[in-house]
């Protein structure tokens, strides 16, 4: 399969100096990269959620400096510097007056999802979530013998929206917890003020705990401050917010996250429930997050701007070359949710794209539990956090397969 002449592809700049614009696949395909080594050489990986961009200089400098000192146990009881920085950042998203005791570090956000399900529900209880959704949501429910109570999002014709009737129908007397993805993965929605207000009313009406995964909050294209679910004081006592730096700063290999709540007793309840099963962040991951919050802002702003350009390039490409593929511009994340169900090859789209286009994507059924998987066949999640040139190459390959004659 021949690739495009990238100099002729709209939106591709080959003469820039931005490190995000000049990515060498051979350098990206190093032995430590799951993303680039899971599939054969020649495959463009657009599946797992990490970016291809170099790490922020402020983070690299802080890590190099940290290696000049001992690597004994870090502040396991709660790093005071990082706690203060997290409190300050949380306040900009509406979580004002967050107590230090309401901040607990995690080895990653996914363990926090599992901890919330384990601590706030019992086997057989219902846990509510909206589909499609990041797969650890439904795995954390099923794997711990709770019941997934699923409400599918609806396609309004301009964006993905909450189906309020489906949400009400999914609740039962056994429902104890709502797992909220905000910003939403995989659709890229940022729930707006009206939707957040209705979700808060809903949680209060049904007396639900809420675990809000806000990992992608810093990757918003809205131009307005992100608002946490628990920004409303009415729901602060029943909400655990999960956050971390790994998506915004491309540091998934240095696992760390945090659970936040204005109710310190709620945080203690989660920590006690999982005990020594949880583990703790590493010394280097703590240093990384400190550096990201202290000096990573300019790098992040530039990255979001570049990602916005990639998002727009992808949408324009689909409109011009693959109009049968439905996709709405994401409001956050670098993950596009594409509806390919109108194509005759939709029934095996992941293998088709892998084998014929040499592009690896995430298959839609991954984002639903077993009973609902079939409903998402023909959807794909595409990671566009790469160079404009590599994105163009991948999309051209997809267009050659999906836009050609099909027997």
Notes on the protein architecture:
- The chain is of the alpha/beta class and 407 residues long.
- The protein is built from 13 helices and 14 strands.
- The chain has helices spanning 25-28, 34-37, 57-66, 80-92, 109-120, 136-142, 164-170, 193-205, 264-274, 283-295, 297-321, 349-357, 388-402; strands at residues 44-45, 103-106, 126-131, 147-152, 154-155, 160-161, 175-181, 209-213, 239-243, 257-260, 335-339, 359-360, 362-363, 379-383.
- The strands form 4 sheets. Strands 2-10-9-8-7-3-4 form a 7-stranded mixed beta sheet, sandwiched between helices. A 3-stranded antiparallel beta sheet has the order 11-14-13, with no helix packed on it. A two-stranded parallel ribbon has the order 1-12.
- α6 links the parallel β3 and β4.
- Its cofactor is pyridoxal 5'-phosphate.
- Belongs to the class-II pyridoxal-phosphate-dependent aminotransferase family. MalY/PatB cystathionine beta-lyase subfamily.
- This is cysteine-S-conjugate beta-lyase.
- Its EC number is 4.4.1.13.
Main features:
407 residues, alpha/beta, seven-stranded mixed β-sheet, 13 helices, globular, cysteine-S-conjugate beta-lyase activity, EC 4.4.1.13, pyridoxal phosphate, lyase, cysteine-S-conjugate beta-lyase
């Amino acid at each position: 399969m021949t690739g495009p002449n990238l100099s002729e592809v709209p939106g591709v700049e080959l003469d820039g100096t931005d490190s995000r614009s000049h990515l060498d696949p051979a350098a990206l395909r190093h032995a430590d990269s799951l993303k680039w080594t899971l599939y054969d050489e020649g495959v463009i990986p657009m599946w797992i959620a990490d970016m291809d961009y170099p790490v922020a200089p402020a983070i690299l400098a802080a890590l190099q400096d940290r290696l000049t000192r001992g690597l004994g146990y870090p502040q396991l009881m709660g790093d005071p510097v990082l706690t203060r920085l997290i409190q300050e950042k949380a306040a900009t998203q509406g979580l004002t007056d967050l107590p230090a005791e309401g901040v607990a570090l995690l080895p990653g956000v996914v363990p926090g999802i599992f901890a919330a399900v384990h601590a706030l529900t019992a086997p057989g209880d219902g846990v509510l979530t909206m589909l499609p959704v990041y797969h650890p949501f439904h795995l954390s429910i099923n794997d711990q013998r709770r019941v997934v109570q699923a409400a599918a999002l609806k396609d309004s014709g301009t964006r993905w929206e909450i189906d309020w009737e489906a949400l009400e129908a999914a609740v039962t007397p056994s429902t104890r917890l709502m797992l909220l993805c905000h910003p939403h993965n995989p659709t890229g929605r940022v729930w707006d003020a009206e939707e957040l207000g209705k979700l808060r009313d809903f949680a209060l009406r049904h007396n639900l705990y809420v675990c809000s995964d806000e990992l992608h909050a810093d990757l918003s294209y809205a131009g307005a401050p992100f608002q946490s679910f628990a920004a409303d004081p009415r729901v602060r006592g029943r909400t655990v917010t999960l956050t971390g730096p790994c998506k915004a700063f491309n540091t998934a290999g240095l696992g760390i996250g945090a659970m936040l709540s204005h109710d310190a007793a709620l945080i203690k309840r989660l920590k006690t429930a999982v005990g020594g099963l949880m583990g703790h962040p590493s010394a280097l991951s703590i240093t990384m997050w400190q550096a990201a919050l202290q000096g990573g802002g300019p790098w992040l702003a530039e990255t979001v701007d570049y990602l916005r350009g990639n998002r727009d390039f992808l949408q324009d490409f689909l409109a011009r070359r693959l109009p049968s593929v439905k996709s709405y511009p994401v409001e956050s994340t670098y993950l596009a949710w594409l509806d390919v169900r109108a194509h005759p090859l939709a029934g095996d789209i992941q293998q088709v794209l892998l084998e014929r286009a040499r592009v690896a994507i995430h298959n839609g059924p991954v984002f639903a539990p077993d009973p609902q998987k079939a409903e998402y066949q023909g959807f794909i999640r595409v990671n566009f956090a790469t160079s404009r040139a590599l994105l163009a190459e991948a999309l051209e390959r997809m267009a050659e397969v999906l836009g050609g004659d099909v027997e």
